[in-house]
Write a structure and sequence with these properties.
It comes from Pogona vitticeps. Keywords: Membrane, Transmembrane, Transmembrane helix. It is found in: Membrane. One of its GO terms (cellular component) is membrane. With 89 residues, the protein is mainly alpha-helical. The chain has a domain of 26 residues. 58% of the residues lie in helices and 0% in strands. The longest helix is centred in the middle third of the chain and has 28 residues. The chain starts with a helix and ends in a 30-residue tail after the last helix.
């Protein structure tokens, strides 16, 4: 167990050093796959933020009358079929 903790610490340190060296060299993306992964990640984050924004708009909308039951158009229901008078008591 102890060695995996050291390996994790070393791996984390290597990743931090890699990111810092990329920032210093101003080359964040080393391949096209890095660019694609970056674009997909930020597209995903953008969609999540858009959905959260739409939920907030829906929750704090000024026209709260749209949820009231009287605003729904009630369609009068007509009786369909034939009454079976034999089943009446």
């Amino acid at each position: 167990m102890g060695s995996s903790g050291k390996d994790f610490g070393q791996e984390l340190s290597d990743q931090i050093n890699d990111v810092l060296s990329r920032l210093e060299s101003k080359e964040m993306f080393q391949s096209t796959w890095d660019i694609v992964a970056f674009a997909i990640f930020f597209t995903f984050i953008g969609v999540i933020l858009l959905l959260a924004f739409l939920v907030l708009i829906r929750c704090f909308c000024c026209c709260c009358e749209c949820d009231s039951p009287r605003s729904y158009n009630k369609i009068p229901r007509k009786k369909v079929g034939i009454d079976n008078m034999g089943l009446e008591p």
